[in-house]
Here is the input.
Amino acid sequence: MKVLLTGSDGFIGGAVADQLEAAGDEVVRVDLLIPEAHAAGTTPAEGTHRVDVRDADALAPLLRGVDAVCHQAAMVGAGVTVADLPSYASHNDLGTAVLLAAMHAAGVDRLVVASSMVVYGEGRYACTEHGVQVPGPRSRTALDGGDFENHCGTCGRPLAWETVDEDTRLDPRSSYAASKVATEHYVAAWARQAPGAAVALRYHNVYGPHMPRDTPYSGVAALFRSALEKGEPPNVFEDGGQMRDFVHVRDVARANVLALRQAAAAPSETFSTYNVCSGEPLPIRQVASLVADGLGTGLEPVVSGRYRLGDVRHIVASPDKARRDLGFTAAVPPDEGLPAFATAPLRA
Here is the structure.
């Protein structure tokens, strides 16, 4: 299979490229090398086309003879300020729309696209007495007072988290999340109109070798490691009890390869979504401790009580649909992968 891979020099894109080529697929590498994901002066992998996915004319010759597109290129992270909004809309929303139109013009009708757990906003919650609840954004007053939990709207008790499946409603809480919901909607519309077959993979917290370090857009595992390497304890927000699912980049890459095979065999007018997760959720303070254990510094995480308004309390994925439909089960458990990550090579 000949695959055009956007974001091919990125953290996840590079791992996808490696696995596709190892499987004997031909990869057309495309990456703009935006500064939020790449250090200045980064040398792209051999054969990379430095092309902006918002440039249909530049994409057109690269799409000739392509069987499928794997779209990883995006502005990532939760956003630093409101000033980031145009960048998310431009790179993620417009970039996806231009790519889809260019694919249609070239007769390419198979697609796998990177989405994210952030499309869900808060996860799934239930009260032991009053059943499933849909909490709104947590208030500044509660957060300032150290109350980080979501509460039952009837009795006021803290809500328990439950796993989120792919049918859960979408409720974006950040600029990045809004752009990923838009991406999914554009792709679903393309699948109907083109017609084509598409798979959106909702990544949970991805970590592993060649993760970017020391940027406001880096993942939290990389931020914990950077602090430890400076001789500082990792700073854990809220009370450290936020539940997340951390999935290794090699597993994410494998999910993409499986999804490309599924898209290639699927009928037209098909759009499917899948959680890509380890299925082994952890509280954030334990994530920090596992990274610290891998470095052997003896430093314990500091739970600061600080918070970010865009953050959600708990988001824990159900791995069942990906296991059933894609045959995907994560191979790297977090209690092994996170300590190993502590000494894995990172990108500047």
